Amino acid sequence: MATPVDGEGQPSLNGTIPDPQTKKLTDLPTELLEHILCFPVLKHVDICNVSCCCKRLHDVCHGRGKVWGHQYKLRWPRLQRFYRQNESCDWLREYKTRHRVGIQIRRTVESISKRFFTEVPCVGQVLGDSFAEIESLGMPEHFCEDELLFILNSDKRKSLTLKYYAKKILYFLRQQNILKSLKNFLEQPTEQQSALEGAVLVDQYCNPLADVTLDSISAQLDEITEKVKKMLRIKNPSHPSLRIAQGNCSVVEDFELQRQVICALNSVLYEQLQYKGNECDYYNPLNSYIHQVDFPEILYLQGVKLLNNFQIILFCGIFSLIFLVIVQVLLRRTGIPISLSILYMTLAQRLGVQLEPVNFPNHFLLRWCQKPTGTEDIYDFVYIDAFGKGKQLTAKECEYLIGHQVTADYYSAISTTEVLLRMVGNLLNIGKRGEGNEKSYQLLRDSLDLYLTINPDNVQYLLLQARLYFHLGIWPEKVLDILQHIQALDPSQHGAVGYLVQHTLEHIQHKKHPVTPEVKRRSAPEHLEVQYSVGLIMKHKRSGYNCVIYGWDPKCTMSPEWISTMRVHQLSNGANQPFYNVLVQDGTCRYAAQENLEPHSAPLEIGHPEVGRYFSEFADTYYVANEELQTRYPEDMDETLCTVREFYHRLTPSAGNQEEAPTTDQNNQQAMSM
């Protein structure tokens, strides 16, 4: 046997002789290495570790390469729409930036509850300082929004407080972007402003968390336009409207051909698609929106606040069941005159017929000129009532709609800006008529923001906005700016302005010296009669509603007027018993006597928008109080756990009775279904 030369063929430590032809991982082609490193189980930490092994793997994992691009797309798929296909990008830098933004956003959101929980709860709370912190990060807005959506889409039952504030921040950030778009829209020349685009912006601002886009709305209108063209093709195969392409602004000049378009449009909208005016719920704000909303709601009328003079009238009881499913004008095919008119006018324009909006009092109309040359004689127009199934009216017949005569000025065409002011004005009136709950305050605040963006010098609405913010205890610095603007516009308002300035300054001073919240311990002698604790899911014995406790008092602390109105003295223990603050399944907050509450036999989640303000998690049979609520009620969570073990675990069959378990589980499931 030949003797090896220069160490060739020397056995290794394990006794094997290495093959000089053996290939290493790094000898593989770059494309194959990239394919291996893009395997889904590998995370960004794994890629970092691999890239540190040697220069070869470090080069394969370079920032602009396929590996980091795959990691970025795998972790944040929603962000792909912000990049062009096959775009050359430093994916490692993008990954680091997005990761850093996520940490900062989460840290900011987590800090909000600690800073704002101790303030007096108010409807429509606006966390302006935290919003400013998010904006000051200087990071791409789509990164911030993506992290907030990531928080909202995490485990449904956990991180409830984090989701509660993330939702508020996302609401605000989207509204700021929409306001910028609205301002840009208003700066366009009047002839370039589309009533449809303006209506969509109003819709988006009032529903920033909904997926509302001009493209999606236009696509639905394109489908309706094609249906009208199909109808026209049957009546007149050579009609010029059939040759109008999408986005083309051609006009059909012949009046007979225009009449054919209007007839076909009426047939499709009101006969085929069954569009109609919403006479049953005329004042619902969603009649003014273009998009789809599913919005189950039962309104509990606790107080109607007249913000013009701060008179507060308290009511109690179930107010009305508004809707189980509310959808927008296009899907629900119902609306009020102005929303249906915008839809009708846009469709007619796409088919070559020019209609003009008319700001008729109490009933929005469209007008259709019957003369070949421009005219302002009100009798040269046919007036179309889109709310009344496209009925065509003369000037005299229009007055029958409102029951009295009006001057010729009310028959004039108005601009797109005036259309938006009318639409937002409708929302404002609905907000002022609201029930004093969070949704009505939010609608009032949003519609005021919109109106003053369009018409920033309206003293009446500036004063209403200042009063609203003052009443809700939000943005006192902004209240002072608004009041200063009012004083400059109308010095005669000095009385109302002076009053609000004085009390706003007091509020600012009060915020600098916050009051330490009261800590309630169950072990205190005055609290021994308190049977229930925060986080327990209860049922009201008389009203039957489901709720969760988020606070309690050893005795009723409400005013004598409230006690008299609610007939508390008719209770067996009257006001001299513990009362509980509860979040109710129907979205209301109530104050319930202990004798009227009992633990729910089959606990279920409470779908209340304020749950996240007080609780961090739903644990199947109870809610876990967040850190701030536990600070106020430090002994309650232990009591809640004891109650849960005692009440619900004894309902669970023991190991010795396992054959009975399916029956019990089935009964519990049936109870939850009921």
From TrEMBL:
Residues 654-674 have a biased composition (Polar residues). Pfam families: F-box-like, Transglut_core2, YccV-like. CDD domains: F-box_FBXO21. Keywords: Membrane, Transmembrane, Transmembrane helix. It comes from the Eukaryota. InterPro entries: F-box-like_dom_sf, F-box_dom, Hemimethylated_DNA-bd_dom, Hemimethylated_DNA-bd_sf, SirB1_N. GO terms for molecular function: DNA binding. The chain crosses the membrane at residues 312-331. Residues 1-22, 652-674 are annotated as: Disordered. Residues 529-626 form the Hemimethylated DNA-binding domain. This is F-box protein 21.
